[in-house]
Amino acid sequence: RDSISRQACVLLMLANRHCAVSETWVAALPEELLLRVLQPLWSSFSLRDGISHVTDPAYMCRQKEINFRMREILIDWLVDVQRKFRMTERVLYLGVTFLDRYLESTQVVRTRLQLVGMVAVDIAHEYEQNDERQWVHVKDWVSICDKAYSAYEFEELKTQMEVFLSGSNLPLAPKTTIDFLERYWKLVLDS
Predict the structure, then answer these.
(1) To pair with 191 at 20 to 30 A between CA atoms, which of 1, 36, 73, 93?
(2) pLDDT of 81-121, one tens digit each?
(3) How many whole angstroms separate alpha carbon 114 and alpha carbon 77?
(4) How far apart are CA 6 and CA 69, in angstroms?
(5) Where are the alpha helices (H) located in 18-146, listed in sequence order?
(6) CA 97 to each of CA 30, 59, 89, 90, 171: distance values in angstroms, whole numbers, following the listed order
(7) CA-based Rg of the chain, rounded to a whole angstrom?
(8) 60 falls in which pLDDT band (50, 70, 90)?
(9) How many angstroms separate the CA atoms of 7 and 168, rounded?
(10) Nearest-angstrom CA–CA distance, 55 and 76
(11) Torsion sign (Cα): 79, 82, 86, 91
């Protein structure tokens, strides 16, 4: 059981970009452990499952005004927002996938990082939630960030991100960390 917990922790850290992972720590892990944990998981997925693009783990190094710590703080805040608006975990994970995809290819100034995060989660929420009556309204997003951004700024960036996401190679329902973990636990339980 201890081995399974360690494997799950390693997998979560490697697959999940929601936390700051020390590359030194990961590099220090025995290769045998990494292969034993990741090989069955990766082989259980295929391109048809939506793994056609993996975000470059070093993309934040190319950002000029933001860094991993700022992203970590943003995602902690987005978790609180997800809970406040009673969104599913899948929405949060999908929103972070959209956020990472956007940040990978677009320079973002520090003062707009929160806005980018909110818009990414909003797009994910609308994608996952079929009932428009349960969507979070722009006024609620503006309010949750203490009116740091206007409704106009929110809508403008949302349009830009939707155009960006529709033009990227991102599948409509990309696999997220939660999909990896669900598949991993099934593999662990089946073995």
Answers:
(1) 93
(2) 999 999 988 899 889 989 998 999 999 999 999 999 999 99
(3) 9
(4) 24
(5) 23-28, 31-44, 68-84, 89-105, 113-128, 138-144
(6) 28, 13, 12, 10, 11
(7) 17
(8) confident
(9) 32
(10) 20
(11) negative
Q: What angle do CA 63, 78, 119 make, to 5 degrees?
A: 65
Backbone angles phi, psi at 26, to 5 degrees: -65, -40
Distance between CA atoms of residues 5 and 11, nearest Å = 10
Q: Answer whether 141's CB lies under 8 Å from 154's CB.
A: yes
- Provide the residue type at 153 as one letter: E
Residue 128 is predicted with a pLDDT of 83
CB atoms near residue 103 (< 10 Å): 21
Tally the residues of the chain: 191
Chain position carrying tokens 């391109």: 47
Contacts 24+ apart (CB under 8 A), 5-10: 6/33, 7/33, 7/36, 7/37, 7/188, 8/181, 8/184, 8/185, 8/188, 10/34, 10/37
Mutual angle of helices 2-15 and 31-44, in 10-degree steps: 70
Tokens for 36?
């034993």
Separation between Cα atoms, residue 120 and residue 40, nearest integer Å: 31
Tokens of 10: 């390693």
**Are 163 and 125 in contact, with CB atoms under 8 Å apart?**
no
